[in-house]
Input
Amino acid sequence: MSYDRWVADWKTGLRRVLYPAYEARMLRRMSGDLPQHVGVMLDGNRRWAKAVGRDTAHGHRAGAANIEPLLGWCDEVGIEVVTLWLLSTDNLNRPADELAPLLEIIADAVDSLADQRRWRLHPVGALDLLPDDIARRLKTAADATADVDGMLVNVAVGYGGRREIADAVRSLLHEHAALGTTLEELAQIIDVEHIADHLYTKGQPDPDLVIRTSGEQRLGGFLLWQSAKSEFYFCEAYWPDFRRVDFLRAIRAYALRERRFGA
Output
């Protein structure tokens, strides 16, 4: 064995010993308010695959495999709602030879989560833009977990924040048209709550914390309406490399902040 390989193996072994103790210490010292709703932008699968010399599909599969551990960590600290951004509306414009495998990987991951019946799944996004079979599988997963008494997990597929707001306004207009409300009357009464009641996440608390992996520091259209008063945490790790210790650091950072709610 080469010296470099020996050093790498030694460091890996040391991490395996030290990280569990470090994580346990972080959990014991967790204080302050914890988030009720966490949004996670699972970013960096393609760049991770390139970095390890594998194809894009391998990166997406590695990212999908990290979803269940994340939800377990969320359960561990008592989070009630998680929103996972798995595919944006912009991503739907990717080449067919990349998009089709990605959609299949996402649907398989959602099927697997539904089979466990640990979490209540709720698809959010423009499902009408997805292939019929993928949209059907997402809806089936939601129906199969509707009675689960567990954490609510929003699965954002074909999701874009601008599209969501446009869909909400469209739904609001249709609703009032059916009631016979004129545009002039609607203009007099419409307010923030009217629109919020027609979002994909209607009835849910807004995200307290939004986590984005891969080092990118922008929203990119994620929960534009709901995140107006959210706290943000940006992690350098690509999503497949995102670990429990990274998650706990995000929660700790949130707990240590003095929230001003936009003030």
